[in-house]
What we know:
By secondary structure, the protein is an alpha/beta fold. The protein has 20 helices and 16 strands.
Amino acid sequence: MTSQSKPKYYLTTPIYYVNDKPHIGHAYTTLACDFLARFKRLDGFDVCLLTGTDEHGQKVEKAALDAGVSPQDFTDSVSQNFRDLTGSLNFSNDDFIRTTESRHKAACQALWNLLRDRGHITLGSYSGWYATRDEAFYTESELVDGMAPTGAPVEWVEEPSYFFNLSHWQDKLLAFYEAHPDFVGPDSRFNEVKSFVAGGLRDLSVSRASFKWGVPVPNDDDHVMYVWLDALTNYITATGWPVDGNFGDAEKYAHLWPADLHMVGKDILRFHAVYWPAFLMAADLPLPKRVFAHGWWTNEGQKISKSLGNAIDPLALADQYGLDQMRYFLMREVPFGKDGDYSTQAMIHRMNGDLANDLGNLSQRVLSMVFKNCDGVMPAFPERPTAEDKALIAAADALLPAVREQMDRQGFHEALRLIWQVIADANRYVDAAAPWALKKTDPARMAEVLAVLAEIIRQVAILVQPLMPDSAEKMLDQLGVVADQRSFAQIGGATRLASGHVIAKPEPVFPRYVEEEAV
Length: 519
Ligand code: ME8
């Protein structure tokens, strides 16, 4: 299939503030998108995965000041740390956007002009509370003990400001939610969004006049755009919008927009499920198809915070336990959409249980027996499979549609659970069939049992490629599955593992983590 004839799938991560170095929260959001993006590519989609950095606003300006460098130098260097994450955590993003790029400033200004020309942005003055840490405005009634509801300190701001007529969009947003029941996931979060909008919307201040580090408001040098209007626009900038501008790309825009999924953390859902659709409605642009809000990680039961200094460094975790092991843990340990806790014990438990014991041992045992007992030649699939063979194969063949359904609703943990159920079935099958004992009594049946198991391992390895690309590659190499036979079109009964080829001496793919356990 050419990329033209494939269905497209455009998904985005939030763009990260460059006031901080990348931590587990950033890695988590991008990993979830990477898992889904790789899954969709193997499932025949033309995928575009966008990530990047959010470089304007008071928070970043202040961080640069604290570091004693210009905002531009500061953002250049911190943005690079986020870009480097792509290589070090094996992310497959197709684009990386920085809000300080010319293509992005042009898109922000085009959107601004469109909103202003349609009468949705007007000049007024703002007086109220602002929390720089959240880059958000709060009313007096929202404050808790003089702080933002998020715990961020607030300051009183009084300045001229442009306003977006958000209140005008209340009913239209509610009607849109009604007509699009899958717009926000999980459902509980969608209900929160609906209640927030039903509770009444105030017009939104969309410019700041008291600092300069932002996209200039067209025709008014005193103002820069509110950082969230700037930031949200990144999703459409990257598609080549506006198509008639200097950076326009009509074909790309028509292909990619609207986005299929904006993945965000629960803290920034409101910006994506309320403000962003309202801006787009006001500009008469199509709305994204879905926004999914994931939960937050704590560290050994404690909230992760700068003051506690307990941020988890994803690179250190990958170094210690292995990259694929970390990727697996983050997607499997916590039901996606819920909050979760990181602990060393849980990490080691997953790594040694699910990976080393369940999947790693299965593959190593089966391939070692093929290597030793079959002269390293992959045996043929049984011509007359037994009831046990059929049941196991049927379970593996049925995986793809079930896993796909979960992936499409961001049930990543559930998708993995389904795969691991088949791995457990295979482990039970190998114990019951005992091919090591058949070696002397019935070598022909031993060969059949190993062929059935090798086929299960092939299907599982193909399915786990999106999450553990390096390990899956090793497994498929060891099985002798050629590179162009590793897509989802090759599983579910469409083909079987070829036989008759010679395999190399297998090496374990998922080592046990021993040292730390002993401690
Ligand atoms: O919010 N657990 O950027 P950001 C899970 N620039 N996720 C976490 C987390 C944790 N402990 N801590 C942070 C911004 N995150 C804006 C986005 S998009 C147009 C603009 C997640 O760098 C958080 O939920 O503060 C959010 O989705 C992401 O990290 C980016 O945070």
